[in-house]
Amino acid sequence: MLVFSGSKINLGLNVLESRNDGFHNIETIFYPLRWNDALEVLENTDNQVVKMSFSGHSIIGSESDNIIVKAYDLVKKNYSVPGVKVHLHKNIPMGAGLGGGSSNASCFINLLDAKFDLKIPLAKKLEFAKQLGSDCAFFIENTPVFAKEKGDVFESVKIDLSSYYILVVYPNVHSNTKMAYQGITPKKPNESVKTIIETRSIDDWKTLLVNDFEDSVFKNLPQIKNMKQRFYDSGALYSSMSGSGSAVFGIFKNRPELNFDKDFLHFLQIPKNVIKSEYQL
User: Fold this and answer.
1) Fewest CB atoms less than 10 Å from the CB: which of 43, 72, 81, 115?
2) Concatenated DSSP letters for 178-199?
3) Any bridge partners for residue 267, and if so which?
4) Cα–Cα distance between 279 and 281 in angstroms, integer?
5) CB–CB of 186/16 below 8 Å?
């Protein structure tokens, strides 16, 4: 069985306060995109474990530490699952703030459920996903949500960007989430992200909708700040770093005519509204 696991951008991201468990309470909007990895799963009758193989972007860490292996182990503890061979073609770069790894894990849980007719209730799948990472549960249903607490408690949100173009650029740098948090002083905003999204025009987002990670990340990686400014100079209605970076996105009313030249590794327009690119800064 072959499936495609997507990505997300963050529309606004406020770091509100530290938690006793070592995490932070945040609020953000997760918005799904069609920048996808490919995930193929075959039953492995010779072995009752998961065996991984990879292609595409390099993946940091050992196979045993891979989030897909961890997802398999969680499901296998609760359901009768045979051994599987998994091939992951990594198209979404790591360290981009696009949630590619989280999406892989949640898509894999959904895939096991469908392929082996496990009949896992939605609540159980969400429970598995939350154990794997703060934003993993979002990808189980993969619809826009207002996320709060650790980023794993959701509310519905009224938002539809299907009439706009979204350009996502991944600079050839990795943003470290731990370091990004170290540069932040948590604070509560005057207006929540959800209120801004649902009550204000997209034309107002530039001055109202912020990503608290940008100040600390931009100090270490000024080229990301420059990319955001380039989007605005090219007519973006709104531009931001996604998550803790390093990907930057811009939302445009019309298809942006930026000159990417030889600096871009590749450039692709995905059906409907998402344009994605990888950029060598």
Assistant:
1) 43
2) HHHHHT------SS-HHHHHHH
3) 277
4) 6
5) yes
Q: Catalytic site residues?
A: 8, 135
Short-list 176, 177, 161, CA closest to 30:
161
Q: CA dist 229 to 107, 171, 225, 233, 239, Å?
A: 34, 14, 6, 6, 8
In the chain, where the domains are located:
2-155, 165-279
CATH number of 165-279: 3.30.70.890
Per the CB < 8 A criterion, the answer to whether 240 and 168 are in contact is no
Token readout for 262 is 């030889």
pLDDT at 30: 97
Asked whether the beta carbons of 186 and 20 are under 8 A apart, the reply is no
Segment 45-56 mean pLDDT: 88
Confidence class for position 261, pLDDT limits 50, 70, 90:
very low
Q: Is the model more confident about 277 or about 152?
A: 152
Q: Is the pLDDT of residue 276 over 70?
A: no
The values of phi and psi at residue 48, to 5°, are -95, 45
Among 3.30.230.10, 1.10.260.40, 3.30.450.40, 3.40.50.12780, name the CATH number for the domain at 2-155: 3.30.230.10
Distance CA 30, CA 12 (A): 9
How far apart, in whole angstroms, are the C-alpha atoms of residue 51 and residue 41? 10
- Mean pLDDT across the stretch 56-68? 87
